[in-house]
Amino acid sequence: MVTESVSKPGTEAGGQHLKSSLRENRVFPPPAEFSARAHVRSLGDYEAMYRRSVEEPDAFWAEAADSLDWMERWTRVLDWDGSRAQWYVGGKLNLCANAVDRHALGSRASKVALLWEGEPGEQRSLTYQELHTEVQRFSNGLKSLGVRKGDRVSIYMGMCPELAIALLSCARIGAVHSVVFGGFAAQALADRTNDAQCKVLITQDSSFRRGQPVPLKAIADEALTRCACVENVVVFRRSGTPVPMQDGRDHWWHDVVERAERECAPEPMDAEDPLFILYTSGTTGKPKGLVHTTGGYGVGTLLTTRYNFDLHETDVYFCTADIGWITGHSYVVYGPLLNGATVMLYEGAPNWPETDRFWRMIDTHKVTIFYTAPTAIRAFMKWGTDCVRKHSLSSLRLLGTVGEPINPEAWMWYHREIGHERCPIVDTWWQTETGMHMIAPVPGAVPTKPGSATRPFFGVVPEIVTKQGEPVPAGCGGLLVIRRPWPAMARTIFGDHERYVKTYWSEIPGSYFTGDGARVDEDGYFWLMGRVDDVLNVSGHRLGTMEIESALVAHTSVAEAAVVGRPDEMKGEGVIAFVSLADEREPSPALKDELKKWVAKEIGALARPDDIRFTPALPKTRSGKIMRRLLRELAATGEVKGDTTTLEDFSVVASLKEKDEE
Ligand code: ATP
Ligand code: MG
Predict the structure, then answer these.
(1) Is the Cβ–Cβ distance between 520 and 321 less than 8 Å?
(2) What are the backbone angles phi and psi of residue 507, rounded to the nearest 5°?
(3) Which end of the chain has fewer CB atoms at under 10 Å, N or C?
(4) Is 398 in a helix, a strand, or coil?
């Protein structure tokens, strides 16, 4: 059902504010049958809970903390001095015990915790009880290799149950895990392992991606020639491909656990003891090792998973993110397992052996909650609906998205083709730094609008401000900041607290600086407009990239678009659009013209691209985000000199450059 609301286009208030020109006025109330059994059932209930959470934050977060089992109760909810936060001061707990033991030793012993499909098609499942056994043995295995509380452990694996077991085992013994995405090359692994000074590295022989083995151990071996800190390596045998093992340094996972004792008591951890380090994906520059701690992170991920996915006992939950990203940490491992959910893990590519792999798995395992990224949704759209419509998808009841602003056209496609107009779409805005969802619709309560992450989570106070920190008028775009600390916030950058304070807590004094631009509409809905670094300045008007890109994606010929500014003597900046076309559409000067006119008609002459460049693919990070800074550099200078270590496929940039030289 669609209801129309009166739309008020963004008011123009000079160069201070981001100009908003997206006119999106479709509203989708939560389906009645969904709300009827949801944790939060009406907008009124959401608003009452939200009000209480910000008026009495200590009471709200104290109550939230009761969802975890504590070994020692905390004495104060929050200590905050403007740059160092401590949540649940003095509390002791273990997150592995919370994510595994209490389910295994309680009513969920025989409930499936992890459900796995390998890319070639194998299936495995582990109950909470089995997970409990595996985690204890591997924890003892790590101890036998000299890993102690506070030591850092680097993890470089593919998606398999042992990856989750590795994280949980570190948490159990108090070691700090630093997961490096299995798609990164040796140098990236070496840099991160050295930065965190990891003592042990956990990897596997190889994993599968698009039918090919990914030689993780071989890449790790190369990285390790540059990592003096690593004393021991654990190798999980996933595929059976032969790998050299270095005597004294390398140990098979199965040997390590076979020798290990069966029982391992969870280490009592201070609420503020570090749980993990995770390096950001590097869309905007050199990766930073963000440090997350135990108590607040546990509370934040548990609560957001429960409310934003409206998680119930019978759900089968499938998040397609790799555990190597924050989404995988918070919403594949910790959030769902802390809630005792059944979590689906998939090893490989979404289009292997065919483009319907996800839809097939959803039907096979009766998945109820599906969480993916706009970049994946745009790929599904490109692959066409035939492969989707072969499957029933009738088990699904909720869809999520994360990673980039979702173009309204992609939202509508997701809603129609995957959700069959029955599933609420939960667009979750958050960051590696925030640890947990910050802005997202609580699905039984908050009506959704395509392209908007909607409203803040309980206890979260976002605001739109100018560069000087002053609030902007409603409807105008500006900088998105968060007004007060929240429990799952990153506490520091590993080894560089000064950089942490400077990056996040100094730009707008007293507030957390997100680096994203956004606006709020008349209903209090947040619309993310892209990164502040990517904002264009055209004739004194500041334009977000997201809205122009969304207009382009709404054209039937366009699959994906990235918009950047190029220095222009007259206008300050001109608008350059890199466009990849839908299947079977051919680039032509006539189409360029048509697309320019289309943008001018859809959102105004100001946004009309000065140049459109067709490209088969856009440069993306390995987590699937468009790297506009490279395109900006290319548009301005015809060269790319910036850091490209997190780029997914360098040949994309090379081919763009060639085009430029034509
Ligand atoms: P780096 O900080 O190293 O450049 P990154 O910002 O891409 O990397 P993440 O922490 O994974 O690393 O991504 C968070 C960013 O992704 C947000 O700041 C925002 O720009 C974007 N983002 C994530 N989810 C959404 C969403 N639902 N809507 C809009 N933007 C989103
Ligand atoms: Mg970021």
Answers:
(1) no
(2) -55, -50
(3) C
(4) strand
Over range 87-104, report the average pLDDT: 98
Is the entire prediction scored with pTM above 0.90? yes
Q: Which atom of ligand 1 sits closest to the CA of residue 427?
A: 27
Q: At what angle do helices 650-661 and 628-637 cross, to 10 degrees?
A: 20
Residue 374 near ligand 1, beta carbon < 6 Å: no
Residue 273 confidence (pLDDT): 98
SS3 for 80?
strand
Best mutation site among 184, 195, 308, 430 for ligand 1 pocket (most ligand atoms within 8 Å of CB): 430
pLDDT tens string 29-80: 999 999 999 999 999 999 999 999 999 999 999 999 999 999 999 999 999 9
Does pLDDT of 660 surpass 70?
no
Shortest-distance ligand to the CA of residue 329: 1
Does 649 count as an annotated binding residue? no
Residue 367 assigned as binding residue: no
Distances (CA, A) of 489 to 98, 427, 435, 495, 513: 20, 20, 6, 17, 12
Report the residue among 180, 425, 429, 514 best suited for mutation to probe ligand 1: largest number of ligand atoms under 8 A from its CB: 429
Does the C-beta of 531 come closer than 6 Å to ligand 1? yes
Nearest ligand to residue 433 Cα: 1
Residue 486 in contact with residue 460, Cβ under 8 Å?
yes
Consult the annotation and say whether 351 binds a ligand. Answer: yes
292 touches 344 (CB < 8 A): no
